[in-house]
C-alpha cells in the first residue's frame, strides 16, 4: 500500500484547522472530558487555562532530573520570586513524565525515543489547546552524538531526517503509512544561531539531525549486544550521513518536528554533542565535562527566552 503524504499544514482536517490552533483532531470537542493520563491532568479535574494560560515557551528534554535542574536555572535567570527548592513537579502523581512551570516557561521530560516523546507531545499539545495558549515556541534540548563535530558542540537542527537522510517522519496509522514533513521553523533556528554568537564559549552550528529508533545498531555502533555490520560499513554510513548534511544523531527529533509542524507550533531542536562518532562509540568524557556540555543547550535557549522577554538587549 502506498504511503499517504500529509502536507505541512496537516489538512487532513482542513475545515477544523480553521477553527482552532494547535490540535488537529475534530473528535476532541465532542468529548465531555479529556484526561491527559500520562501527565496526571484533565479538563474536569484541573483549571488548565488558569494553570497554563500564560505559557509562551515550552522546553522538553529526556531526563526528569535534567528538566528539574533546567526549571531551577530558568527561575534564577528570570529572577522570579520564591525559592527554587519549592518548584514542584506538576506530574508528580505519575511516574511517566515530570513537568515544572516557571513563569511563562514549561520544562517537561519526555523520556527516550520516538514512542515516549510522541505520547508526551500528544498530551502536551492538547493541554496547550485546552489552556487556550497562543504564540508558543517549543524547544527540544538534549544530547546527541556528533557526526564530524567535536564533543561539546551545540547543533541547532535545520531539518530532522530519518535513517535514510529524508526530512520526513513515517508512522503506521490503521495499517497505512502516514508521512509527515520534519522541517522546523527557520526563523527560530536563525535567531538561535544569531544569539549563540553572544555566548562565545558555546561552539554552535546549524545542520541536519538524524533521528534513529535505536541507540546501538540503528546509530551504527559497534559496541551493542548485537552487531550485524563491519567497522568499514559503519564508517561508510557515517560518511554518507555527513555528506547529506547530518551533524548529529539522536532519537526524538523527527516525530517532534513533524507533530509541531502539523500543529502550527514554532519549534526548534537544540542538542549538544557528547562525542564525535568518527572517533568512537562509547561516551568516556569525564562526568564534570558532560554536565557542563549538557548545560550548553539550556544556556542558549534561556538566552533566547530572555531576549524574547526583553530582559536583555
Structure description:
The protein contains 8 helices and 13 strands. It is an alpha/beta fold and 313 residues long. The strands form 3 sheets. A 5-stranded mixed beta barrel has the order 7-12-11-8-13, surrounded by 4 helices. Helix 4 runs parallel beside helix 7 (253-262).
Q: How would you sum up this structure in a few lines?
A:
This protein is an alpha/beta fold. It is 31% helix and 24% strand.
Q: Count of DSSP E strands?
A: 13
| Overall pLDDT score | 93
The neighbouring-strand order within the major sheet is 7-12-11-8-13
- Beta-strand level of the residues, as a percent range? 15-25%
| Cα gyration radius (Å) | 19 Å
Structural class based on helices, strands and sheet pairing: alpha/beta
Helix content: 25-40%
The shape is globular
End-to-end Cα distance, whole Å, is 54 Å
Order of helices and strands: EHEEHEHEEHEEEEHEHEHEH
Number of helical segments with 4 or more residues: 8
Regions with little confidence, pLDDT below 50 for 5+ residues: 7-20
Characterize the largest beta sheet: strand count, sense, and whether it forms a barrel. 5 strands, mixed, barrel
Amino acid at each position: 500500500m502506498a504511503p499517504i503524504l500529509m502536507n505541512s499544514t496537516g489538512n487532513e482536517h482542513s475545515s477544523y484547522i480553521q477553527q482552532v490552533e494547535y490540535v488537529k483532531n475534530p473528535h476532541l470537542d465532542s468529548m465531555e472530558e479529556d484526561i491527559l493520563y500520562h501527565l496526571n491532568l484533565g479538563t474536569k479535574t484541573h483549571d488548565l487555562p488558569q494553570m497554563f494560560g500564560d505559557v509562551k515557551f515550552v522546553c522538553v528534554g529526556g531526563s526528569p532530573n535534567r528538566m528539574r535542574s533546567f526549571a531551577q536555572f530558568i527561575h534564577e535567570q528570570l529572577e522570579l520570586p520564591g525559592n527554587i527548592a519549592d518548584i514542584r513537579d506538576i506530574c508528580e502523581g505519575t511516574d511517566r513524565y515530570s513537568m515544572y512551570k516557571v513563569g511563562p516557561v514549561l520544562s517537561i521530560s519526555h523520556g527516550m525515543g520516538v514512542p515516549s516523546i510522541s505520547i508526551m507531545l500528544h498530551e502536551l499539545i492538547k493541554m496547550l489547546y485546552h489552556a487556550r495558549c497562543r504564540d508558543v515556541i517549543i524547544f527540544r534540548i538534549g544530547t546527541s552524538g556528533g557526526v564530524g563535530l567535536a564533543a561539546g558542540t551545540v547543533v541547532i537542527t535545520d531539518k530532522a531526517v530519518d535513517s535514510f537522510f529524508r526530512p520526513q517522519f513515517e508512522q503506521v496509522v490503521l495499517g497505512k503509512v502516514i508521512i509527515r514533513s520534519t522541517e522546523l521553523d527557520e526563523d527560530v533556528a536563525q535567531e538561535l544561531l544569531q544569539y549563540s554568537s553572544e555566548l562565545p564559549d558555546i561552539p554552535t552550528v546549524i545542520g541536519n539531525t538524524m533521528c534513529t529508533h535505536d541507540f546501538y545498531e540503528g546509530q551504527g555502533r559497534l559496541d551493542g549486544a548485537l552487531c550485524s555490520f563491519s567497522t568499514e560499513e559503519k564508517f561508510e554510513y557515517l560518511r554518507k550521513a555527513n555528506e547529506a548534511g547530518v551533524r548529529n544523531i539522536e532519537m526524538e527529533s523527527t516525530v517532534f518536528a513533524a507533530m509541531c509542524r502539523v500543529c502550527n507550533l514554532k519549534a526548534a531542536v537544540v542538542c549538544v554533542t557528547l562525542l564525535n562518532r568518527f572517533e568512537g562509540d562509547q561516551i568516556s568524557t569525564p562526568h564534570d565535562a558532560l554536565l557542563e556540555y549538557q548545560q550548553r543547550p539550556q544556556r542558549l535557549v534561556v538566552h533566547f527566552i530572555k531576549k524574547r522577554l526583553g530582559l536583555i538587549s
